[in-house]
């Protein structure tokens, strides 16, 4: 009788441990599924963002200065014979002076 009670208690504890382990695994699987779904949503959001950039949709409600036509775009500067980063052709670029001239001007007002 005592032996049967001990065996029943051991089996009940084992079942309880198995159930707890199953609950832990189910919670971990649910958490992983939630993270996976969240990651999928973030990737879809990034994809939509990239598609909007590639397809030319506005990035914001306020157009950029280039989009407003206030500044020429890099493509426009290249088409006019300018560099990607230089002022557009037809605008006054600052006069270039040699590094030697800059050094002379920098030191001319000081006792070196």
From TrEMBL:
Residues 1-40, 53-112 are annotated as: Disordered. Residues 1-12 have a biased composition (Basic and acidic residues). This is Uncharacterized protein. It comes from Phytophthora fragariae. The lineage of its organism: Eukaryota, Sar, Stramenopiles, Oomycota, Peronosporomycetes.
């Amino acid at each position: 009788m005592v032996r049967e009670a001990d065996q029943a208690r051991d089996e009940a504890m084992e079942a309880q441990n198995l159930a707890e382990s199953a609950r832990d695994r189910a919670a971990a699987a649910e958490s992983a599924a939630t993270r996976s779904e969240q990651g999928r949503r973030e990737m879809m959001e990034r994809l939509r963002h990239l598609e909007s950039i590639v397809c030319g949709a506005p990035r914001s409600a306020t157009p950029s200065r280039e989009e407003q036509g206030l500044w020429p775009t890099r493509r426009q500067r290249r088409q006019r014979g300018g560099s990607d980063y230089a002022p557009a052709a037809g605008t006054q670029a600052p006069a270039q002076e040699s590094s030697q001239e800059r050094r002379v001007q920098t030191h001319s007002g000081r006792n070196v």
